[in-house]
UniProtKB/TrEMBL annotation:
It is a single-pass type II membrane protein. It comes from Eudyptes sclateri. Keywords: Glycoprotein, Golgi apparatus, Membrane, Signal, Signal-anchor, Transferase, Transmembrane, Transmembrane helix. Belongs to the chondroitin N-acetylgalactosaminyltransferase family. This is Hexosyltransferase. Its EC number is 2.4.1.-. Gene3D superfamilies: 3.90.550.50.
Amino acid sequence: PSEPGAAMRLAALLAALRPVLPLVLGLSLGCSLSLLRASWSQSGGEDQCLGAAGRPGPLAGGAHLEAADGRLGPGHEDFRPRIVPYYRDPNKPYKKVLRTRYIQTELGFHERLFVAVLTSKATLNTLAVAVNKTVAHHFPRLLYFTGLRSAKVPHGMVLVAHGDERPIWLMYETMHYIYQHFGSDYDWFYIMQDDTYAQAEQVKALVTHLSINQDVYLGRAEEFIGGDEQARYCHGGFGYLISRSLLLKLHPHLDSCRNEILSVRPDEWLGRCIIDFLGITCVSQLQGQHYHTYELAKNTEPEKEEEEEFQAAFAVHPVSDMTLMYRLHKHFSRIQLDRAYQEIQDLQMQIRNLTSLTPAGETGLTWPVGINAPFLPKSRFEVISWDYFTEQYLFSCPDGSPKCELSGASKADVSEIIESALEQLNSRYQPLLRFSKRQLLNGYRRFDPTRGMEYTLDLLLEAVTQKGHRHVLAKRVSLVRPLSKVEIIPMPYVTEATRVQLVLPLTVQDLDFVANFLDMFAMNTLDTHDNALLTLLFIYHPYDAQRVSQVDVFAGVKAMVGELEKRYAEVKIPWISVKTEVPSQVKLMDIVSKKHPVDTLFFLASVWTEINMEFLNRCRMNTISNWQVFFPVHFQEFNPALVYRGEQTASSSTDFLRDGHFDRHSFAEACFYNSDYMTARTKLAADILERDEVLESMEVFDVFLHYSGLHLFRAVEPGLVQKYALRSCNPRLSEELYHRCVLSNLEGLASRSHLAMALFEQEQANST
């Protein structure tokens, strides 16, 4: 009887363990495999492949074993990341760590390529100018080095003069200058002469395929006269490439080379210096990359050269005159353009062949092939509208008018598009048909941010057959000007530590809003100790100015300023009194500008502006001396009586920009440096010739727009929110300024839907 009971207990135990049985088996199998693998690795570690003298042999593929301390061999230390532990000596006082200005400096990043052009006083205004106009803008950084400079340096060229025309001395000083000023900033240094034409794009592509961790001396290798057969120097006429590591090793020996090596040619002198002290010779190919060159014969016609060696040349020498330099540039630019078109055609063919394998199939193929598909709006508010134009007029004007004359960049754009359309039609139908334009019937264009500018043209064409028959027909064509490669525009460095000088003009009509402005200024700048100051500008009417001794209309404001100065003992708020009937913004800034240093950063505010730290920081960052001025577009709240109609005002932080609009008609707020304003104002004074009435029709924005040459940054600013207030528009100002003020008041009442509801309720009330 005990046997059946034991069997039942065993069955019950197995039933209980059955859910966890896979887990137990998995753990057991894993432990067994790990023990087995450990035994294999221990036995394998005792049987290393040893080379001669018992040293470990090289690994397959050319790699090398690591050293015992885990570091790689010579030449690889720059590629292995190292963690430097933080240690602070408790015996030394704490010192704040100063961070670098740019993160790439802290991480040790270098720019790619620096180019030095050796020129002379005789060729500075000829060949050097030709180099500057052809290839200089393709290189990231290019400097010209000469012994003696001429009286006038050509525009747009950065020139370094060493004061001596001796060739060896010029080369020595140039290498020393490059090391001292750019040795720690660039990985590659390309040195060329001004009688050399270099294909900039080819040279830039070359350095991207070379390792930066080797000593590179690459160019057209030439033999020394009567020297060692194995030694070579790089011919200076064809340009040569030097790596940063080689420059760092060469610099300590430059003085010895100058004193010990005698040579007539500077390139030979440099090559001998590198060979004697570093043991490195010039090579024409390295790491699978070939440096192709071509020597021009006399009276060469670049357009007729068809040799493969000429087509593939990185550098061409000698270039005897400016005209030949420009012809070479045109020829090689055409070669690069043809290569680019051929690559585009090949890529488009590959895309067509692969489209059938995609989930969307051939229906997913967009036009043009390889360009992003058009933007698909998700609602009617995202629809991109088309602008209509003809050859003479544009029917969507920047100032909002329905029709304006087509001129400037827009006219050039339309002309280029029509010419391109005719060229494409003729290339497709010739020799059967040849088209010529008679008239542009209709033109439409729009900017699609996902792909570029799109055009649709209705052209009236005249088609001529091979037999001379003529026929007039209308044809619609579509074109796309795709967005090109995005480039980062270099901007000067600015910080948020700059002091901002607020300027607040006040008239009698503004007295009701001054108290709120001063309260916001005290709360957001004085309480937070922001680096900002305030200057008030009291604008008296001539009648009020005569009675100022009896009744001062700004007495209340001055009392408020006195209270602020008592509350904040270290703060002084000066004011300036001005008497005028027409408060011109330019005339007022003329007075303020003379009372402040030239490096002052002004913020021209309005009495409805609510100052906050967020905007002041953007004012500092967006305003760059001698480069850019900032005109923010403030957010104007609507009239609460029309928007809410007695209901409670929305107080949610997410809706603070809901019931209002960005007032693009207002230019009252501006951030700019005093030096930039003074420079533009000087040019304006020379233009108007003491005609002060012209200033009444201008704002500070107009001064910078027409007379500064600086970048004008005009952008919406959510940090500038103004409560609704009906502005007083001075009819004595110019018609344009008065019209803008009236439009600002009208558009600031309410949105269309709110105005429609107000009219609807008014009509209902009148009907009842």
